[in-house]
Amino acid sequence: MTEESDVENDPNALRTHTLPWRSDAANDFLKKLDERWLRRSSSKNFVIPKMRRVTGSSSLASPPQGVAKWTVSTEWLEKNKNIQNTRRKPSQSLIQNPMI
After folding, report:
1. Distance, CA of 91 to CA of 76 (rounded, Å)
2. How many other CB atoms sit within 10 Å of the CB of residue 35?
3. Among 23, 56, 79, 97, which one has the highest count of C-beta atoms within 10 angstroms of its own C-beta?
4. CA–CA separation, 97 vs 94, rounded Å?
């Protein structure tokens, strides 16, 4: 068997799917949150199970309702201009960029 098929059959592997609409700023923010959580949890002696992560294909999902504008990639928006925005407008508190 190849390594790829081993991963597909591995119950301990976590397959992730990238979100092509997510901005670099949003990815950086989430990475910092993960790092912070790992530092805090390791100092409190939490047991964190190790799972092998395997990157799968990109997700076809559009951004969810109420997502902050700074989390959506401008490149993705340019490519998907024809998608109608029929979603509710988020409150002003959701639009603020926590990276500022």
Report:
1. 23
2. 10
3. 23
4. 8
Does this model's pTM top 0.85? My answer is no
Token pair in block for residue 99: 């990276």
Sorted by sequence, the CB contacts under 8 Å of residue 66 that are 6+ apart come out as 87, 88, 90, 94
Evaluate whether 20 touches 61 at the Cβ level (below 8 Å): no
Contact present, 59 and 19 (Cβ < 8 Å): yes
pLDDT tens column, 65-93: 889 999 999 999 988 877 645 444 555 55
Q: Is 76 exposed, middle or buried (CB count within 10 Å of its CB: 0-12, 13-18, 19+)?
A: middle
Q: pLDDT tens digit string along 21-77?
A: 999 999 999 999 988 988 887 777 766 677 788 888 888 889 988 899 999 999 999
